[in-house]
Amino acid sequence: xxxxxxxxxxxxxxxxxxxxxxxxxxxxxxxxxxxxxxxxxxxxxxxxxxxxxxxxxxxxxxxxxxxxxxxxxxxxxxxxxxxxxxxxxxxxxxxxxxxxxxxxxxxxxxxxxxxxxxxxxxxxxxxxxxxxxxxxxxxxxxxxxxxxxxxxxxxxxxxxxxxxxxxxxxxxxxxxxxxxxxxxxxxxxxxxxxxxxxxxxxxxxxxxxxxxxxxxxxxxxxxxxxxxxxxxxxxxxxxxxxxxxxxxxxxxxxxxxxxxxxxxxxxxxxxxxxxxxxxxxxxxxxxxxxxxxxxxxxxxxxxxxxxxxxxxxxxxxxxxxxxxxxxxxxxxxxxxxxxxxxxxxxxxxxxxxxxxxxxxxxxxxxxxxxxxxxxxxxxxxxxxxxxxxxxxxxxxxxxxxxxx
Length: 404
Hints:
Layout: E1 8-13, E2 16-21, H1 24-34, H2 40-47, H3 59-73, H4 78-82, H5 95-119, E3 124-127, H6 128-135, E4 147-152, H7 157-166, E5 170-171, E6 189-193, E7 200-204, H8 216-224, E8 227-228, E9 236-237, H9 240-251, H10 254-259, H11 262-273, H12 278-292, H13 295-310, E10 320-326, H14 331-347, H15 353-376, E11 397-403
Parallel strand pairs: 4-7
Antiparallel strand pairs: 1-2, 2-11, 3-4, 5-6, 6-7, 8-9, 10-11
């Protein structure tokens, strides 16, 4: 008897293969977004099968909920789909309209920021969520957004900072980092807040999260291939091919695996896949491999789309002699270990030694300063990361060794 393929992702780490399995709820909501209208109610029912109240729904599904609601509203009668949601969740009916309104406001704020940058002749590109809204892709305005993401040239940062401050955007103290040299291990983005606190402004120097040096070639190429947005042709965005690569890189980002942001980017890939032909996908895979060594991630993402849309079945599943379960909180330690390996590799290059020493010293100083600040001041702050009940966090991570 054949078994249906589990929706899972994997990537090589120095001591094995780290694997991440999507939950049943995530699988249901992704299939709902991708399916034909007559199949929607089946996946909608599966989404709520084990959820007693809306608050128990895992964070990653809440991120996609406006898309899911819009899909189910256009697929069947309100009485048909509302019977499956928990009590006191009737507010979901208005969620698409709320998200659409918020995203319209985000677009208007982006237009103000863009006009100010244009006045100073500063080059910029909209990326991620705001990019999708400007391009007007399918259900783009139903996409959950918490920030505006702008890509700039790093040597324009101080000029941009002044522009943002004039508009009321101040560099975030919560995520402050010491500016240590022009190092390739500097953060790929800086965060700005304004008094309204409705969303953040993320200013990127690299289009892909992680160490800046890992994606410099890709970012440089992205600037050359930028295109005009369909719905707002006076704004530039990355090409469809580059947006696909950015989304895939975010799908396989370990911080996103740990914090529940993965399915949102899978949703983007599902949208892109309706616009990309097989030959285009081959070119995207070659570009991703050449520029950031992630051709395998592109292939996995394409397979993932096939599983979600076509419900294909497993054939030759690779087996492993040793499978080690990994708790969600342990992912952060794996990330730290990978950063240490990267720093060690950089130490081999004489011109990078100073960067590594400066980076390491600054991290030690920041940890000491933050601990001192906590001891001196009582500061109760609200966490922005998803804080989900243990019962809602099935053990979805594992390390696989010794295939056969």
